[in-house]
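Prompt: Have a read of the protein record below and flag anything odd:
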Amino acid sequence: MKDIIQNVREAEAEAAKIIDKAKEEATRIVGASRSAAQASTDKAKLDMRGEADRIVAEAVAKAEAEAAATIASAHGKAETEISPSAEAMKEAAEAVFNAVAGGGR
């Protein structure tokens, strides 16, 4: 009977060792999985930041190009709409001449 009890205790001790090893292995696997998941998440965040930076840079470049085109268009319009006609320039020149030559009459 002692031998049976001794064998049961030895089997229990061996089972406890196996369970401890399994727990250690499970802890190691969970830790490795967490590390891999964190690395994957960090890479995805970095990729998304890079993509966001690229999109913002493209949007800024597009907005700058549109602003430059709008300014050029407005400048061209201003030149054509504000430029005095030949008649207006002639009248202004005559007025200046008369003011200077005629003594301001």
